[in-house]
Amino acid sequence: MKKYAPAFAVIMAAILWSFDGFIRQNLFTLPSFLIITIEHVIGAILFFPFLLKGWKEISALRQRGWISILWISVCGGILGTFFYTKALSYVNYIDLSVVVLLQKFQPIFAIALAAVILKEKITKRFLILAGMAIIGGYFVTFGDSPMAEWDDKTIIAALLALLAAFSWGSSTVLGKHALKRLSFKTVTSLRLSVTGAITLFVLISTGQYEMITEMTLDHWKYILLIVISTGSLALFIYYYGLNHLPASHVTLYELFWPLSAVAMDWYIRGNMMSTVQWMGTALLLGAIILLSRDDSLGQTQSE
Predict the structure, then answer these.
(1) Structural domain of residue 208, as residue ranges?
(2) Could you read off the pLDDT of 184-214 as tens digits, one per residue?
(3) Is the pTM value of this prediction over 0.90?
């Protein structure tokens, strides 16, 4: 049973993330950056004991290790969460299913970025599968609507979702790199601490902290719920799984995120995708499954 624990951890994190969109949509009246700051500061406080315990590991970290930590803290912790939260703020213009499904572009961005940074070779197979995923993503977002009927808010929300996918995809490359030098507990606590410190500094410097006085009790309840479920906790168990599994396997297990989110979006809100969108979903997820079986994915993300 123990050998299945890492896979189960990633699946549990993916299922928790599928709830994340529903929770964040209740915070659409708050600035995205304020939400990110509060959730990471609270998460950093909760995981502070792990930071102290791993201090010997952290003190031995060299330049490349710190670059990895800073990257996952800024791109994964700040930018990815900001773009995703911002995309969900367009709740009246785009379905949750679309925003979540577009996150599955992460492996494509991860491999493309690794090709630039790590000089990995881009194969013809990757280009074909990436093209299939892009076509699938197009149909997921716009269905069979003609270009003249595209809503600008939908386009903006879709672009924000893709930017989030890029931020998180690139963080997978550097996150795997960081896990070679630090335990998953230390990586989690360090990422939360660095992200929390940076966002808190920016929030105070720009004066956005004044919005805290306008937060209601419900706002605080939703943010705390994010921290203890879909935020810090999900991140903790995800890094546990990523630390013990090939990245190609993790990509497959992460498919529980969009699939469960789409099911819940239909069950809770009655948002059912059109036939064309379902065809796009099959094309997108099919391309990602085939891509994850490519050895180059496992090699790229384990660098």
Answers:
(1) 2-301
(2) 999 999 999 999 999 999 999 888 788 898 8
(3) no
**Contacts within 8 Å (CB) and 24+ apart, 115-123:** 115/300, 117/173, 118/173, 118/300, 118/303, 120/296, 120/299, 120/300, 120/303, 121/296, 123/294, 123/296
pLDDT at 10 over 50: yes
Per-residue pLDDT tens over the stretch 45-89? 999 999 999 999 999 998 888 998 999 999 988 998 889 888 887
50 Cα distance to chain centroid: 22
The gap between the terminal CA atoms of the chain, to the nearest Å, is 28
For the chain, give the DSSP string: -GGGHHHHHHHHHHHHHHHHHHHHGGGTTS-HHHHHHHHHHHHHHHTHHHHHHTHHHHHT--HHHHHHHHHIIIIIIIIHHHHHHHHHT-TTTS-HHHHHHGGGGHHHHHHHHHHHHS-PPPPHHHHHHHHHHHHHHHHHHHTT--GGG--HHHHHHHHHHHHHHHHHHHHHHHHHHHHTTS-HHHHHHHHHHHHHHHHHHHHHHHTGGGGGGG--HHHHHHHHHIIIIITHHHHHHHHHHHHHS-HHHHHHHTTHHHHHHHHHHHHHH-----HHHHHHHHHHHHHHHHHHTSHHHHHHHT-
Whole-number average pLDDT of the chain: 81
Domain count, the chain: 1
Tell me the pLDDT tens digit for each residue of 210-244: 889 889 999 999 999 999 998 899 999 988 988 88
Alpha carbon of residue 114 to chain centroid: 18
Contact between residue 230 and residue 23 where contact means Cβ atoms under 8 Å apart:
yes
Say if residue 183 is exposed, middle or buried (CB neighbours under 10 Å; 0-12, 13-18, 19+).
middle
